[in-house]
Amino acid sequence: MWWIWMPPTRPARSGSPPWISNTTRGHRGWVDPRKGFQPGKGLLTYPQDIQRFYLFTEDNAHVIVIFHYPSMAFPVMVIGMSNKEYRPTLAQLRTFATIAECKHFGTAASKLSISQPSLSQALVALETGLGVQLIERSTRKVIVTPAGEKLLPYAKSTLDAAESFLAHARGANGSLTGPLTVGIIPTVAPYILPSLLSIVNAEFPDLEPHIVEDQTKHLLSLLRDGAIDVAVMALPSETPGMMEIPLYDEDFVVVVPDDHELAGRQDLQLTALDELELLLLDDGHCLHDQIVDLCRRVDVNPISSTTAVTRASSLTTVMQLVVAGLGSTLVPVSAVPWECTRDGLATANFGPDVVANRRIGLVYRSSSSRAEEFEQFAQILQRAFDEALKNAHATGIQLKDNNPIIPLPV
Questions:
Q1: Which of 87, 279, 308, 362 is spaced 20 to 30 Å from 205 by Cα?
Q2: What is the pTM of this model?
């Protein structure tokens, strides 16, 4: 297969052959000396009126022939058949995977911190070397071709393997080192990050944590796309292709206005939820779903007519609403030191025989070869939760005991 490539950065000049124009530059096709530029895959023979060759060279992807017509304003490159020895670079694979993820060239270029022309050139070089169209381009949308969809998982696996190779090289001494991108749900991040980062800075100075706070569904998407290495979230993730390391079970604490009749109680049953006007986080937060599931266990509808129109995206906002007397809520015990010590709030606990908790764990791709590192990081997360729990008890608020669980085999 042969095609023509018109240099896209230079306009046609006077005296050029009629097939050289601003509408054909940058397009693939072939040249018929009698009919002019023909879009497509032709050019099985060179046009007869070539005056001389400027260059004949070969790289890993293709043969490039630059020739010149007597009346041409600039050369034209003919790019030839794929070389069977071609091997894509990691940069080319990363370009393909990022375009497939973003479905937009500008967004993909920004994400990779390169120019859009450089992005396009890397993709063209990859498609040329493989002899396969991976991305279908149009002025309106970017579509991954069927061949691209088939090859995309292999590209991602290759990139994962390269990252694992680097991580293992950095961690050859058995400790956590190098970059580690960690996704954390919003109802965990603010409460364990201070202890987590303190431990990392003191004991793992060569570890470079990057934190991404987002809702569960977004973190799982980032995990699938390789944008983050691990995610701290509520279990089960119920996502194919993921592995889970359970970290700890965390009790819920009832938060009410300080003059509420349940304030200070230590023997609540789940049926007590029916007495509360519960304020919940927006849909999409796993804590919202966990409280709803808790209520359903005792046939309680947590969405009352008075709170249904109240929306909040953070526990801090919910606490302010409770102080104002607009309702009550449930929070994880690790949030108590940060959210429940302000004036106007009181807490209550479920009885010792009541199971009202959530399980937090570490989730990562099953294709990753960094399981040992992630298990080590899971232990750091457990220690961070221990510190958060100690801080909760230090507030003087009476709480049930929580203990980290032993990670299950992976």
A1: 362
A2: 0.63
All domains in the chain, ordered by first residue: 3-79 (no CATH), 90-168 (1.10.10.10), 177-410 (3.40.190.290)
Q: What is the dihedral of CA 197, 198, 203, 209, to 10 degrees?
A: 10
Q: What is the pLDDT of residues 128-173, one digit of tens each?
A: 888 888 998 876 788 899 999 999 999 988 888 887 777 666 655 5
How far from 349 is each of 34, 100, 385, CA to CA, in Å? 87, 48, 19
Nearest to 116 by CA among 136, 128, 99, 91: 99
Beta strands in 290-356 (DSSP E): 329-332, 345-348
Strand ranges (E), 260-390: 329-332, 345-348, 357-365
- At residue 96 the predicted structure's pLDDT band, cuts being 50, 70 and 90, is very high
Torsional sign, CA 280, 282, 283, 285: negative
How far apart CA 28 and CA 77 sit, in angstroms, is 10
238-255 pLDDT tens trace: 888 899 999 999 999 999
**255 DSSP β-pair partners:** 329, 347
DSSP state of 271: G
Whether the CB-CB separation of 219 and 211 falls below 8 Å is answered with no
Q: Which of 25, 29, 31 is nearest to 10 (CA)?
A: 25
pLDDT at 190: 93
Query: For residue 57, what are the β-bridge partners?
Result: 64
Contact 247, 381 (CB under 8 A): yes
Tokens of 34: 């009698």
Half-sphere exposure of 247 (CA within 13 A, CB side): 26
What residues are paired with 5 via a beta bridge? 28, 77
Residue reference for tokens 């390169």: 114
Strand partners for 328: 278
